[in-house]
């Protein structure tokens, strides 16, 4: 996965609370076995609704999505963050996230940022009132430069921050310890049939 350090981008608004994973990526699109190709179906059932703004030209290329509280609730489908990332977002900002959704985001290199509700509403207002407005999310400093000029800090666990800054997914973390794993495999007692090739 790609590292995340500083994301400076337009902000796209999804001004709804309790957006569940079936709304993010409806069940009929979960037939793919790859992680890609889900972005075109993001919020599919809402595409004709007045509140859906993500396809407007002013928000084209936005890498930051701002959303209402409890974003990503519902089923634990990992396809939801895949769809958001495949659509082009690197950061999702909300006042709260469903736990499994939040974890699934960090596992694929997407940054979920929790900010106080008042600050989220400020960002949402600015994104709605001034389409195309930009802001900066700095993972190195754990800070968000709001459109109104203020800087707000956010908390993220050190281990998750390190993973995202370095672009380490679970496989990458495992490979970082390959020498220790190889030593263990070489030293452990082998009773019964050997299922690996010894060189």
Describe the protein.
- There is one protein chain.
- The protein has 199 residues and is of the alpha/beta class.
- The chain has one domain: Aconitase, domain 4, CATH 3.20.19.
- The protein has helices spanning 21-24, 79-87, 99-107, 117-129, 158-166, 170-175, 178-187; strands at 6-14, 64-67, 91-94, 111-114, 134-138, 143-145, 151-153.
- A hairpin with a 4-residue loop joins strand 5 (134-138) and strand 6 (143-145).
- The chain is globular.
- The model has no long low-confidence stretch (mean pLDDT 92).
Query: Roughly what percent helix?
Result: 25-40%
Ends distance = 31 Å
Radius of gyration, rounded? Answer: 20 Å
Apparent shape: globular
Number of domains: 1
H/E topology pattern: EHEHEHEHEEEHHH
* Multimerization state: single chain
User: Largest sheet, described in full?
Assistant: 7 strands, mixed
Portion of residues in beta strands equals 15-25%
The tally of beta strands, per DSSP, is 7
**Strand order across the largest sheet:** 4-3-2-1-5-6-7
Please name the CATH architecture.
Alpha-Beta Barrel
Mean pLDDT: 92
CATH topology: Aconitase, domain 4
Summed up, the helix count is: 7
CATH domain class name = Alpha Beta
**CATH homology-level superfamily:** Aconitase, domain 4
Q: Which structural category do the helix and sheet elements fall into?
A: alpha/beta
Low-confidence stretches: none
Task: List the SSEs and their pairings.
Layout: E1 6-14, H1 21-24, E2 64-67, H2 79-87, E3 91-94, H3 99-107, E4 111-114, H4 117-129, E5 134-138, E6 143-145, E7 151-153, H5 158-166, H6 170-175, H7 178-187
């Amino acid at each position: 996965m790609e590292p995340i350090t500083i994301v400076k981008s337009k902000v796209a608004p999804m001004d709804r609370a309790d957006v569940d994973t079936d709304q993010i990526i409806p069940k009929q699109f979960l037939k793919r076995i790859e992680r890609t190709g889900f972005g075109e179906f993001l919020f599919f059932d809402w595409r004709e609704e007045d509140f859906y703004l993500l396809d407007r030209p002013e928000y084209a290329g936005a890498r930051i999505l701002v959303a209402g509280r409890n974003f990503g609730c519902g089923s634990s489908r990992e396809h939801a963050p895949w769809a958001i990332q495949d659509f082009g977002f690197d950061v999702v900002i909300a006042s709260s996230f469903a736990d499994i959704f939040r974890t699934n985001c960090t596992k694929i290199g997407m940054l979920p940022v929790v900010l106080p509700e008042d600050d989220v509403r400020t960002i949402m207002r600015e994104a709605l009132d001034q389409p195309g407005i930009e802001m900066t999310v700095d993972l190195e400093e754990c800070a968000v430069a709001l459109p109104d000029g203020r800087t707000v800090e956010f908390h993220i666990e050190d281990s998750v921050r390190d993973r995202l800054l370095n672009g380490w997914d679970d496989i990458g973390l495992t490979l970082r310890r390959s020498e220790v794993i190889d030593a263990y495999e070489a030293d452990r007692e082998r009773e019964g049939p050997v299922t690996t090739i010894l060189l």
